[in-house]
Amino acid sequence: MLAIISDIHANMEALQAVLDDIAARDVESIVCLGDVIGYGPEPCECLELIRKHASVTLLGNHDFAVLYEPENFNVGAEAAAFWTRQQIETESSDANRSAWWEFLGALEMRHVKGNGQADASPTVFVHGSPRRPVNEYIFPDDVYNNASKLQGLFDRFDHLCFVGHTHVPGVFVETPDFYTPEELEYVYEIDPNHKALINVGSVGQPRDRDNRASYVLYEPDAVRFIRVPYDYEAVIEKVLPIPELDDYLGFRLREGR
Ligand code: ZN
C-alpha cells in the first residue's frame, strides 16, 4: 500500500498529523506530488520531513517558484515565494541549506510506476496534469465546461493518473464525470477497464470546505480518501506575525478554502 500526499505548503502541523496517521497504517512508501513549500510558515521544517519520509517527491509550481521564479502568481503567492526563498537562504547550517536546494533542484516532474503485474498499465504521478505536469489545473467544472480538455488529458495515460495542484480531492472518469470523496463514500474501487484521474487533495491547504488535511491510500484494488484533523489555529498563530505572509493564508485554513 502506497500513501500519496500533495500540497503541504509549509504547514508542519498538517504534515506531522498526516505522517502520524500514515505511520499507524501498513504503508510501504510515501509519494509526494509536490508543493512542499509556498504559502505556509515552516518551509524548512517541511522540506526536512519530506526529504526523510517520502520515497518520491515531484516538482510543484510553488517549489518551482522558490527555486527559479514565480509564474502567473498573484501578489500574495509571489510574496510568499520570495519569503520562502529567504528562509532557506538564511538557514545557518550550510549543510542544511545545500541539502534543501539540492533536494528541490532534483525533483522529478513526472513519475511512472508499475504495479508489479506484467499485464497491468503503469500508474502516472504528476503535480498538475499529465499534459503539463507542473502548472496545469484540472477543475471539477472542466467536466461541464471543457470536456475536450479532459479527453486530451485522458489520452495521455493508460489507466490511473494521480494529481494534486487544485487542492480539491476527487476522481475524474472519462465519461467525463467528477466524483467527490463523499459521493464515493471515500473509496474509489479501481476498475481495470476504465481510466481514472485521481486528485489526492491537499495536506496543508485543503480547498473543498473541509478543513482537515487530505491524502489517499493506494491499494491494489482501491483508492481510499483519508482526512486528518490537525491544529490549524496553531498554524494561523505562526502566519499572522510574518508580514510577508498574507493573514488570509492563515485564516483560509480554518474554513478549508
Ligand atoms: Zn498547491
UniProtKB/TrEMBL annotation:
Coiled-coil regions listed in the entry: none
Recorded GO CC terms: cytoplasm
Sample GO molecular function, one term: phosphatase activity
CDD domains, per the entry: MPP_superfamily
SUPFAM superfamilies in the record: Metallo-dependent phosphatases
One Pfam family cited in the UniProt record for this chain: Metallophos_2
Domain (Calcineurin-like phosphoesterase) ranges: 2-219
Identification of the protein by name: Calcineurin-like phosphoesterase domain-containing protein
Species, as recorded: marine sediment metagenome
